[in-house]
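Any chance you'd type out a single protein's sequence alongside its tokenized fold?
>
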Amino acid sequence: MIEDVADRLLSELSGLDPCTAVVEAGEQDVDGLTDYGPEGHQARADLAARALAELKVLGAALPAVTPLYAHLAERLHTRIALHDAGEDLRELHAAATGPLSLIRQTVAAAVPGHGVEGAAFEEGWARVGARVAAIPAALDGVQTTMMLTSRSFR
């Protein structure tokens, strides 16, 4: 039951945050990049809120809180609180988990490794091309978020 919610959350989150799915979870079957604009941040917060509501319904039927339930509930609460405080819009640092680094790492992860040949080689470079083509939209989202956030500091 809770495992199903966790699996569905991971699948949906991978669609909304493909850069993190590639870099953090090793997912490779992704062509696009994360929407770092305000709408993308809102979509990820909305997913967290829906998942938390579903989790609470399941939790009410549990005889005791499981470690998975506790962990998911804490992570979802934190994600929602960060969004509500506007902190997710400020994740624009240059560290390895910042948007620019995640975009670069996501593209690099698609490059076929040494010894890859045939269809896997072609698929790898096609994926690189799809991810490179998505860079302008991802950077537009970063810029939009930076502009929105900078206005809030004035």
